Structure formats: structure tokens, C-alpha cells
Amino acid sequence: MNTTTPPRAVLGTPFRPYRRGVANAILGGVCGGLAIRLGVRERTVRVLFSLFALVAGLGLLLYVVLWLCLPRADESEAIAHRLLGPHRQLRRVLIGLVAIIALGWFLQALGAPSLGAFSWPIWLSLIGLIGVWRGASPDERRHLEELAKSAPIVGVPTTRTKRSFFLRVVLGAILVFAGLRILRHFGSAWGVASPALVGSLILIAGVLVGLAPWWLTTLNDLSGERRERVRVEERANVAAHLHDSVLQTLTLIERSAGDAEVVTRLARNQERELRGWLFNPGAPSDQPGTYAAQLREMEAQVENDWGVKIELVTVGDLYLDDDVAALVAAGREAAVNAAQWSGASTVSIYAEVEPATVSLFVRDQGRGFDLESVPADRRGIELSIRQRVQRHGGSVSIKSSPGAGTEVELVLPRTA
Amino acid sequence: MGQPRVFLVDDHELIRSGIRSELAGSVDIVGEADEVDAAVEMIIERTPDVVLLDVHMPAGGGVAVLAALSGRCPEVRVLALSVSDAAEDVIAVIRAGARGYVTKNISGPDLLDAIYRVAAGDAVFSPRLAGFVLDAFSAGGTTLEAADVDPDLDLLTPRERQVLRLIARGYSYRDVAKELAISPKTVESHVSSVLRKLQLSNRHQLSHWASERRLL
User: Fold this and answer.
1) CA A164 to CA A167: how far, in whole Å?
2) Would the ipTM clear 0.85, i.e. be above it?
3) Of A129, A149, A169, which residue constitutes the final position of a domain?
């Protein structure tokens, strides 16, 4: 949505709102975004963040928290929002927090509240990073994967070069060596447990760095397999759907080839169903409880029952309440009325949701009528439409003249 | 101007012959193609007034044809024709340069009307396309979750909005003109200016809107 956000910082020109950068992102775009927000050079922000990170890793923690809490410039949801969205995720977060506290307590018990490089902000940051990875959007994850591939140390075999191999071996060796040194130095004296812990951690890090490419490859294979399985399942779903709906309808059409009306109706139904399935999978208006979904259902019913084509256009949507349901019901009566009396082959329905009103227009280009001399049997229908809408605080206006079609306008003010 | 010279691009022979027989006698059909490359070559060679372009074809579809034509023959106008009503497809062909969008179940006379209108340089908006545009440019229309609407999306003038709304309600251009007490030419110019905005406005927000509709 933040279309005005420039891809890079414009010096001296701050931009709102603060979003994570995309085009000028190195890691998460936090610094790039801040640079855009403040209108300063990206490098300045990065240097400041790095300096701040030296203060017991606080800068790092700040970075990760911002990463989690700010949406990317081209997205509308922050990672944290995405992670916390479903309620069941909340429990995981709580468990994570408990684990962090327990870890802190454990370290405290060892008499090492801040173990050199592994102070609490760094622990928190690492856990935050796991959250980032889990909650990242596909786009962002791709960015991170590319980053991981291009990083020399953990490069997967496909992008491995001699240089990265060399770097990895050297770094791994240094870490293993350092770990061994620390262990040997303090290992004998159990009273000094904390350096031993640091030593083992560094040792583990060294082994991890050495094994990372292999590990990543395995991971990639696994996700490839998973993707393949999803593809197969998807295909099976499509086949099942086509069989259940399209093939059945085609058979029915073949059988009733003589009856033009039945064939038209079948084809129209199938078209509507297939369209909805193809183009609106999981759209909000697919949920049964919305205005647009209700109108679509009404469209299908009236088309089926009265053999007219309904051209439905909806703009915006909202969840159904009693008032809106009454509006749809009144609109349905108007549409049936048009199908029954106007003689037109098409009825246009236009529904719009605006901040202050919900409106529904039902229009045909049929024979129309003179509002003054409406026959009694039609007046009843008109009255029932009018009463229905007025009971819910809305208004109705009907425009019609003989030969020029009819339009019924239903407007409902929004209470919420 | 005599009969407009029309070129058909569709990968389904059945559809082409259907259109051919519907239009026979009313327009001059100067050629047909059933795939992207042949279509581009022949259109450049024959410079028809109007190209009826199928949106969904192998190898890139209508958008690929429009992309290949862009800038090479500005006098050729394109009317997109499709079975699909997906917002993404509609917006994509319009943005690629089509002057209008109609669905294949359009009636013969309506299609003819659309062809003449496009040949005259006007834009053709079906009710559904008008609805999509209103939705895309709406300022706070929806109340479902993703309701943080950027005021910059709100690019349409109130008059353009009025015109689009009437088209979405099923009004023909002539009816719109009568309803608003303006001349049909003015209606045309409003619609053309909406088309221009659709083509020129920030790419990001429209594609965002289209994908949002799909993904939510």
C-alpha cells in the first residue's frame, strides 16, 4: 500500500510511515527503512546500528525487534502480526518466553549473567531471528535464502567456490581451536563453569560452520520434496473438482441437448461455479457471511429460478448483519420483480460499500412502468421492498418510465 | 470512416468462427491469428484499425501481443476479449495498452458497438471493469481486514467516479450522458481519462490491489 515510499532514502526528505526497506535492504531492511523515514544516508544508519550493537548486543536486539514489528514496504502485515495471528501461536510464544526466562535463570545460577558475547540481548535476538524466519513472507524468505546462499561461509554446494570453501575451513578451524583452547585451559577446574560453557559453545559453532553446507543441502532437498508433494495434491484436487462439476455438467448438457433453456441454465451455472473456483479462491467474499457472497448466492438463485442473466458487480465488501441481510433480501425481491415483469433478458445489479453507506442498485432495461399507475399486484411488491428497507433505517427510490426500464435504488446507512 | 478493419487473435478456432459470423458484413476482417508471434507479425504488416485480442493464449497470451506491439504501431487499437473476469487479467491487459475489455459472452450488437467505439479512439468499459476500477481506486470502501487505504489511491475525480458508478450499474454511455445531463462526448472523455489513469498510475498499487483480492 505504501506506494509513495521511495526505494532509497532521499537525503533531507523524511518519509512517513516507517516501513522496512525492500530495494535498499541488506538483511531485513530495518536500517534502509529508517534511512528513508529520516531522510539520511543508509550507511549512517547502518554504522550507528553496528556501534549500538557493540553495547552488549543491544543494537542487535533492537534490530531484530524492529524487523519483527515493522511491515515491509510492499506488505501490509508485520512478521510479528503474522506469527501471532492465529491464536494457537500464542502458546508457542509463551513457551518461548518461559524458555528464555529459564535460560536466563540458568545462566544466573552459573554466576554468569552476561557471558561475554552471549549476553541476554543476543539470546533474545537469536530467538527473534527464528521468529523472523518462521513468519517471513515468501518474498522475504526468498531474499533471505539468496542472502544465505551468497554468504561465503555457509554457501550451499551449488554456489560454492574455492574461496568460500577456504573461508569456511579457516573459520571453522579457528573456532574449533579456540573452543579447545578454552576448554583445556579451564576444563580441569569445575569451579569455573562459565568459560567451559563458552568454550563448548564456540566448539559447537565451529562444527556447525563446517557442516552448514551439507545441512542446508539436506534441508533444501526436504523442502523440494515437500513442494513436489504439494503439487501432486494440488493436481489431484483440480482433477477431482473438474470431475465433480464440469464433467457432470457436460454429461447433463449432452443428455438435454434438445432443451435450449435447460442447456443455457446448466452452462450458466457451471460457468459461475468454475469462475468462482478459478478466480476467487479463498477471497474474503467467499466466506459465506459477507455482503458480496450473499449477493452472489442471490444471483445464482434468481438466474436459476427465473431464467434471466444477472450481471452482478460489487465494489467493496463487509460482513453481514441484520440490516445488510434485509438489504439483500429486498434487492432479491427487486431482481425477481425485474425478471418477472420487465421482459428484459439481463438484470444489472450493482452493490457498493462506502464508508457511510451500503447501496444496492437493481436495474433492467425492460418495458418499465408508470409509477403513478402501478397495478395493485405490483404495488404490493414495491411496498414490501420499501418497508423492508425502511424498517432497517434505509431508503428506497424507484425510477421507471414506460419503455425505458426500471431502476431500484436501495441505500442503507452504516451504523458501525 | 468506412467499416473498421478488424484483426482476430484467438487460439480457439471455434471462437474465431463464431466472432467472424457475428461480425460478418458489419466490419472488414483483415486477418486472423491463433498464436502470439504470428499475430504480432501480421498485425504489424496489415495495421488493422482494431485488434480483437484473446487474453488467454499459450506463450504469454494477449499481454505478450500488446507488449510486442507497444510503440510499433500506435494507430492499431486493441480490444481485449476473454472468458475470464479475473481482476488481475483485466487490469493486466488494460495496463499493457488495450483500449477496452469485453467478455466473450457479449452479444453481437454490443461487440460491434464496442469495436466501433475503440476504432474511434474511445475506451470500452464493461460494468465489471468499471467495478474493478472503482474497487481499485476506492477510498476506504472495504471494511474487511485490509482496510488501511492509502489516500493516494484516490486518483479519480468525483465526476469520473460518478460516470464509472453508472456504468457499473449497467448504464450505456448514452444513458450515462442523459442521467448526468452531459453530452455523450463528455462521457467518452471521462472514460478515456480513467483509462489513462489506469495505464499510467503507479504500477505497484494496482498489482497490489489485484493480488490482494486473490490472496485474502
Assistant:
1) 5
2) no
3) A149
